Amino acid sequence: MQLTVWTYEGPPHVGAMRIATALTDVHYVLHAPQGDTYADLLFTMIERLPRRPPVTYTTFQARDLGGDTAGLFQGAALEAYERFRPGALLVGSSCTAELIQDDPGGLARALNLPIPVVPLELPSYQKKENWGAAETFYQVVRALAAPHAPPPGFKRPPRAPGERPLCNILGPTALGFRHRDDLRAIRQLLEQLGVDVAVVAPLGASTADLARLGEADFNVVLYPETAGQAAQWLARTFDQPQVRSIPIGVRATREFIHEVATLAGVDPAAALAGAPSHSGWYSRSVDSTYLTGKRVFVFGDATHALAAARVAAEERGFTGVGLGTYSREFAREVREAAKGYGVEALISDDYLEVEARVAELQPELVLGTQMERHIAKRLKIPCAVISAPVHVQDFPARYSPQMGFEGANVIFDTWVHPLMMGLEEHLMTMFRGDFEFHDAAPASHLGSSAAPAAATEGKAGQMAPARADTAVWAPDAEKELGKIPFFVRGKARRNTERFALEHAVELITVETLYDAKAHYSR
Fold this sequence. Notes:
Strand order of the largest sheet: 11-10-9-12-13
Largest sheet: 5 strands, parallel
CATH superfamily of the largest domain: Nitrogenase molybdenum iron protein domain
Number of strands: 15
């Protein structure tokens, strides 16, 4: 475990919470001190869920460490069962409680509850959130689906004539980056292909749903970080193949459709013909040619980083200068991809190392997480968020997937808009001294009728004509005002003049300007 101010992933018990919160009738009893309840806020404040996560904390305190903490856990587990009546109970420890070594699994089994109890052994000091989510999902799937498993060596028989193919969608969780919208996009694609969905898990699944995962013909794994391990077990146990294409970007979506069609034995023509993505033409259109060759740095979880790097290179014409991930479990895949793009892979969960690499490479666009958004802001580089860790704005009220053809449209808009804003700002700076585009020039569509209004702004180095109710601007103050960005300069002028009027200041100096700023910043 590394002591740091910011981290890409939480401890593994947060990953377990993401699985428990995604499922509908599972409860998680977490042996944890009082302070660890902070994790609830991730779901209620960032994802804006209308309910608390289904988690009961033992919330032991320092004075409890000399007493019976095992009894405290058993009491909390029994109370959680009686109050919530879940279909299954997950039990485990947080990073702090792990040091006590109370064995939550053994303690819960000793209660002889009439429901499945799934013990989670998540090494908090060696592993992190995504690993914890994958391990939790695997353990829950194995515990609930194993009783229905066929004998070893089972081979899935062919479907009966006229029977529609059936698949599971695995991977979407609570607190996932656009998981809710991705799921909707993939359901639409599967419907167009004539493939029915048996179970979506863990998001929205019940314990009964998990028990019947083996009924499907194959699995669609959207996020290998969380569902890859469970999908491998289902493949071994139920002879279920899995779709490995991740449908992010137009080309990857077409590959996904072909792979699903092959496994399902259906015609992909209908799904391919109905591709509504505008991103391909927009990328080739005249007003997008300035995007060609833009230098881009990509960083995020492995699934989204690999997909973004491919879209950037193959569908946008960007030049990749860096590719990396904090998902160490997928370091090999990222290194192989980086080698193909001719860049050095960055495998790190240290945001300071990532910031140093971005500062060294000086890309024109950063595609990353909320961490990279802050890094890019400090370095004055345009940025688009493509991956978790996320913030509240990454859970928009509108439909905004990353996957499928509509996801390709969303990606185009998300990536291009920061660059367009940068271009506009560059043009404004370039033509700042032009007779038509300088700061004091009136709007061109107003013609000469707006000219008198422009005169009131004055020019740097000259006294602005005073009105009866305003103070006079000193030349150095007017020059200092000109350094303020144009989009807030008018407000700064008005606030300063109001401050001067209220304090009977007749001549506005540089000191007055900053006194006003301090006054209105309180």
